[in-house]
Structures are given as structure tokens and as C-alpha cells.
Amino acid sequence: MSEHQRLVSVFDALGPVMTGPSSSHTAGMVRIGKISRILLGDTPERIELSFYGALALTYKGHFSDSAIVAGLLGMDEDSPGIVNALDIARNQCINIKYQLNVDSDKDPNTVEMFLSRDQDNLHIEASSIGGGEILVSKVDEFSVSLKGDEDGVMFVATDYLNHDVINSLLGDNLLEIQYCNSDTNANKRLVKCLTKEPLSLTSIERLKQSTGIEKVFPLRNILSYKLVDHEPLFSTLDGFLQYSFSKGISLPEAVMHYEMKRSGIKKDEISQKIRHIWETMNQSVKDGLSGNRKLIASFIPSDDPIRMLNLVKKGRSLSGDVIGNAIANALAAMVTNGSLGCVVAAPTAGSCGVMAGALVAACEKFDVQETEIEGSLLVGAMIGTLVAMRAPVSGAMGGCQSEIGVASAMTAASLVQLAGGTAKQVVHAFALVMKNILGLVCDPVGGPVEIPCIKRNAIGVATAFAGADMALAGIESAIPPDEVITALVNVQKLLPFELRGSMMGGLASTPTANILKNQWRNMIQHH
After folding, report:
1. Residues 192, 154: contact at Cβ < 8 Å?
2. pLDDT in tens, 36-46
3. Which of these, 128, 148, 275, lies nearest to 223 by C-alpha position?
4. Which residue, among 213, 224, 144, 142, has the nearest Cα to 183 in the 3D structure?
5. What is the reported pTM?
6. 454-460-465-471 Cα dihedral, nearest 10 degrees
């Protein structure tokens, strides 16, 4: 696996289960807050937040500030309390301040925090890298790399501590030791110790009392899985097919093998997670069709899914029952997302309606067994995983091609798997869709995940069905599937900042968009 690739979990590409509206800017921010709370030791008394790049423009529409504070208060990504986190913090007399830095060379999904509790101060710099994945890159004056799945401890050493001393402190629980030099003081270094199991409070206190240790930062896995094996079973679409063929197993079984090796979790646990994801997808569609949801900014009507469903029921849908229902479902899941409901990021929250909408409709039409839908979801997740190893799945980093584009291609592959297509047809369905959504820009109007995100999910559903049907008919992509991912990476790099979630180009720059943006700003200022 080359340097630029990341060993992604299938539950990074299909997940997290989360409260909307944005996996990067909501769920990712909750996770950053949760890690920071662990590092600090408890809830902070003072919070200073600095947002950078596109995040500095969209943070209110994506509830990023609420999400970080929710994580600092100990909430999870799917907590309904995220929306009220700022009020809860203020009621606890927690002081919160903001700084916005639009013009910055930092990653556009970056947040910087200064936290205080009792006499302890903590400086954190972190970014959300798409689909809820995060990277903490700075703790105080030390450059680090924390992804949220680590157990162990970090401590600032003022004296030299050799491996024997560290082993005596941590014992057989110790897995790995890493050292980081201070950016400001040559006499200090950060020692990062990864352990098999989380350290007990007693062990943490022993470290705090040890000679030569100035400051201790506990680490605790905030995900439901870890990275336990750094060597991927396969890292390309071709490798995925070759592994399945060489072992004489189905694609879903190959996905199971991949995740079991990567994360060290058993087959039953993977199946259980997939069932929870499927239940949440179904519920997100149901909630969006209930007529009881209200979009955050209400730029568009919340009953569009019901309008679409009524058209289908009257037999007036030109696209037929399955695609018509899938469009209604996709709109519904996105209404749930845009009203701070619970959804499944696939691969992001801003594209959560595509796979949910298509698969729920397909399963309603055809007699589908539970094992078949599980296999379909696993295959779609694996496709998204192999993309995410090489390309960011974040609108702010790569445009909407990274979200709706990847979601539609994942869904096409899932539909082919569900329909009993061959392994080759699965990956060509992905390629046929992905190569035809290259260049799709991210241009959210005003900031909330409403325009054009919601309707793009509906169009993504139709594209997924078109790609799936072509692949099932034996039509192939002239460009090999893995090369299509290469093309996606190329376009992402060439796409200007203005077309990557900055609200400075595309639909977001139109006169009507500017009117809606001002309406939204007035709304949040008076909230």
C-alpha cells in the first residue's frame, strides 16, 4: 500500500450512524470534541474555537460548534442532544468563544481549540477528513497523529525514559511506543504509548506521579472498531475481485475477510453492525416521509418526499415505481438528515439518501432475503472503502463528486450485487456511474445541507439505477474501474477552492443564493 493510501474500515465508508446534517462537520466534530475531552480529563470550563477555510463559512449551517461542544460534554455522534449542546454548556457556565479564519492555508476542515479546566490548559488542532473520519494533528506544542481508535496514553517527558522504564510502567499491555519532539522546547518530548486495552485510572495516576513525566494525556478508542492489522488484504478494485476469485468466495465474504483482518472483529459482530445500519437507513426514510420533520433553514419544503411518493402512488411517475419510490426515499432520508435526525453516512451524511433510498425501494419491490441485503450493503461499503483509501470523501476537500458521486457509484455496485450480478458487473457499475459524475462541484447555498444537496441525492439514485442496469446488461466502462478512481483523485486536485464547499461559486454564488444566505445569517443571529 503506497504512502498516500489509508487503511479504511468498511464502517468508515458506510457509517457512522449519526445525527445530521454533515458527517465531516457534525459527526467528525463530535469525535474531535470527544477525543479532546479524554485528553483534558473531563469537561472543560472554557472553550475557544477557531474554524478554518470552508468550515469557517459553513460551521453554523452544519452545527459544527454545537457538535464540538457536544463531544466535549461527552455526547456521541448519534445523540439527539447535539442541537442543544451550546445551551447546555452555557447553563453549566462554560465560557465559549469563536474565531473564524476563512483565508488560510490549513486543511479546509480544520478546527483549533484552546481548552481550560481547573489549572490545566490544552491546545488541540484537528481536522475532519471526510465521512466522519478525523485526524488530531497537534496536542499542545507536539505534532501528533490521532484518529480516535487508539487506546493507551501520551505523556510529556522532561527526562530521558528508556523502553525498560516505560515497560515497567505499562507491562504486557504495551503494544507500541512513538516519540514526538516539542516544537518549542528541545528538552521535552511527547511519548505516545499504544496499549491492547485502555489504561485504568490507577495506572494513569501512577504515571502522573512518576519522575520525569510532566503531563499525562489518556487515550481511549471512541470508535467501535480499531486498526489492528496495518497490511490490507487488498487495496484496489481489481485486488478485491482477484481475492474473491482466488479464495473461491463471494464478494460479501471477501469484505468480511477484509474487515476481520483490518479491525480484528468477528463475523457476527460485522453482521450485527450491518443490521443496525440497515435498520437506521429504513428509519431515516420513514421519518422523512412522516411529515413531522422541519429542515433547519427551511430553504425548501420539508414535504417534497411526500409529493414524490404521491406521484408514484397515482401511477404518474415517468421513471416507474422502483425509481420513483427510490427518489421519494432519498429525499426523505435527506430531510431527516437536514432536520437533525439520525441517518447513516454513506459515505457522508450529505449523501445519506442515495444508498438508503435505492436499497429500501429495491427491497420493497423484490423478495429480498436478509442475507442478500447484508451482502449488498457490504459490497457497497467495500467499494466506498477502496475509493476512500485514495480519495477524500468530503465536499470541502474534493467537491460533491466525492459525496454524491461516490455514493451513487457505491449504490450502483450494491444494486448489482442485490440483483445477483457478477463480480465484474459490480465494479463496472461503480465505474460507469463514477466517471459520469466527475467534476460535480460542492456549492451549498447559505451553508445548511439543503440546496442543492437534498435533490442531488434524488438524482444520484436515478444515476445509480442507470449504472446498475447497464452493468447487468453486460455494458462495461472503457476506462478500467481502478483508473476511474485515479481520475477522481486528479479532478479533486484540480477543482478550485471556490467549488469545494466555500459558498463562493456555482449555485451558492447566484443572486437567490445570496438572498437566502442573508436570511440564514439573520436567523442564526437572532437565535
Report:
1. yes
2. 999 999 999 99
3. 148
4. 142
5. 0.93
6. -160
Q: Could you write out the DSSP letters of every residue in 303-323?
A: THHHHHHHHHHTT--TTHHHH
Residue 69 phi, psi dihedral angles, 5° rounding: -65, -40
The three three-digit cell numbers of residue 500, written as one number: 469545494
3-state secondary structure of 113: strand
Count Cβ neighbours within 10 Å for each residue of 325-364 and write b for 16 or more, e otherwise.
bbbbbbbbbbbbbbbbbbbbbbbbbbbbbbbbbbbbbbbe
pLDDT at 461 over 50: yes
Residues in the chain: 527
> Has residue 77 got a pLDDT over 60?
yes
327 vs 323: CA distance, rounded Å = 6
What average pLDDT does the structure give for the chain?
94
Strands 174-181 and 213-219: unpaired
CA-angle at 463, arms to 458 and 468, nearest 5°:
130
Nearest to 418 by CA among 472, 466, 458: 472
Query: Range with the lowest mean pLDDT among 73-87, 101-115, 243-257?
Result: 101-115
**Separation between Cα atoms, residue 263 and residue 310, nearest integer Å:** 44
CB atoms within 10 A of CB 198: 18
Phi, psi of 165 (to 5 degrees): -65, -45
pLDDT at 527: 57
Contact 492, 485 (CB under 8 A): no
**Which three cell numbers mark 61?**
449551517
What's the rounded Cα separation, in Å, for the pair 113 and 121?
10
CA-to-CA distance for 103 and 119, rounded, in angstroms? 33
pLDDT on residue 50: 96
Beta-ladder partners of 482? none
* Assigned C-alpha cell, 472: 447487468
Pair 252, 378: CB distance under 8 Å? yes
Q: How far, in Å, CA of 67 to CA of 82, rounded? A: 6
pLDDT-derived band at 181, boundaries 50, 70, 90:
confident
Contact 399, 368 (CB under 8 A): no
The per-residue pLDDT for 1 is: 42
From the centroid of its chain, how far is CA 141? 27
Beta bridge partner(s), residue 101:
52
Alpha helices in 128-232 (DSSP H): 163-170, 201-208
Provide the pLDDT for residue 209. Answer: 86
CA distances from 525 to 83, 178, 400, 519 (A): 16, 45, 28, 10
